[in-house]
């Protein structure tokens, strides 16, 4: 795989992997919306490594970069009362530190 | 910016009238809002401290004003007519639009295609991320809390309210643009446009169709 020397480590996930969003409520600017915490989805694609927005928000340099993925969720997995068919989905960008294997 | 605020207090003498160039009100004066005033003050300070020049501010405004849905419409119309270009655009959006002279200003572009079975809708729940260098400034509704919350949990209802009614067999794919990607929807090419050139097709590609809240305009019958 492509080497990203300034990144925190090798990426842990690949397209098709099932993942779960970590449930945590640390203070400060966090780039993960509450509605998706605890939900399971599938890696749609790996987007690359980007400066960490949760550090950039406070004037830090955002290094080391974080791996960013697009994760696809079934809407019926996210919302108990979703009004629509089973095949409707939502894609969200998630930094690796908010993911765990499912 | 590293100096002690106390010793420089005399330099912060900005207690003068700020001249507005964007006054579209009917009367000859109006009050500046708090945030507008702060942004003007910040701009003046940045210019005073030579962080940016007045020319750079003007040039950037000029650049942003030159961005608008016509940029996106040309990209989509080209993709409708050129399969190789479309393939590149879907594979590496950022590099492909760069080849047309369109910058993504540090973000990456992902183009998502509407088909008979898939309808894509873009939202930014956390703020109002939007492909500004391709579509210009976002519409007010895109930035509203109502759209940002409802588009993720009841997209079909929101689409219906904008006049877009989708059959159940169509998958609605919502894209929450919450980080470093920007999304452009490629609407379905309208039936009855066979043989049209890029300029003609681009006329049918609206801003709303590239956000996914509507389809492309239909050709006149």
Notable characteristics:
heterodimer, A: 102 residues, mainly beta, SH3 type barrels, 5-stranded antiparallel beta sheet, 2 helices, B: 221 residues, alpha/beta, Nitrile Hydratase, Chain A, two-stranded parallel ribbon, two-stranded parallel sheet, 11 helices, disordered N terminus
Can you identify the CATH class of chain A? Answer: Mainly Beta
**Biggest beta sheet summary of chain A:** 5 strands, antiparallel
Major sheet: arrangement of strands of chain B: 1-4
Low-confidence stretches of chain B: 1-11
Q: Give the second-level CATH assignment, the architecture of chain A.
A: Roll
The tally of beta strands of chain B, per DSSP, is 4
User: How would you sum up the global shape of chain A?
Assistant: globular
How many domains in all of chain A?
Answer: 1
- Record the strand order, biggest sheet of chain A: 4-3-2-1-5
Radius of gyration of chain A: 14 Å
Helix content of chain B: 40-55%
Query: How many whole angstroms does the radius of gyration of chain B measure?
Result: 21 Å
Order of helices and strands of chain A: EEHEHEE
Number of helical runs of chain B?
Answer: 11
Reported for the largest beta sheet of chain B, the result is: 2 strands, parallel
Q: Oligomeric state of the chains? A: heterodimer
The tally of helices of chain A reads 2
CATH class of the domain at 67-211 in chain B: Alpha Beta
Strand content of chain A: 25-35%
Fourth CATH level, the homologous superfamily of the domain at 67-211 in chain B: Nitrile hydratase alpha /Thiocyanate hydrolase gamma
Mind explaining what this structure looks like?
The complex is a heterodimer of chains A (102) and B (221). Chain A has one domain: SH3 type barrels (Roll), CATH 2.30.30. Helices cover 8% and strands 33% of the residues of chain A. Chain A contains 2 helices and 5 strands. Chain A has helices at residues 53-56, 75-78, and strands spanning 18-21, 40-50, 66-74, 89-95, 99-101. In chain A, strands 4-3-2-1-5 form a 5-stranded antiparallel sheet. Chain A starts with 17 loop residues before the first strand and ends with a strand. Residues 1-5 of chain A have low confidence and may be disordered. With 221 residues, chain B is an alpha/beta fold. Chain B has a domain at 67-211: Nitrile Hydratase, Chain A (Alpha-Beta Complex), CATH 3.90.330.10. Chain B has helices spanning 34-48, 54-66, 69-81, 83-91, 93-98, 132-135, 140-143, 145-153, 155-161, 198-202, 207-211, and strands at 108-113, 118-123, 171-176, 181-186. The model of chain B is unreliable at 1-11 (pLDDT under 50). Chains A and B meet through strand 2 and strand 4 of A and helix 9 and strand 3 of B. Strand 4 of chain A pairs parallel with strand 3 of chain B, so a sheet runs across the interface.
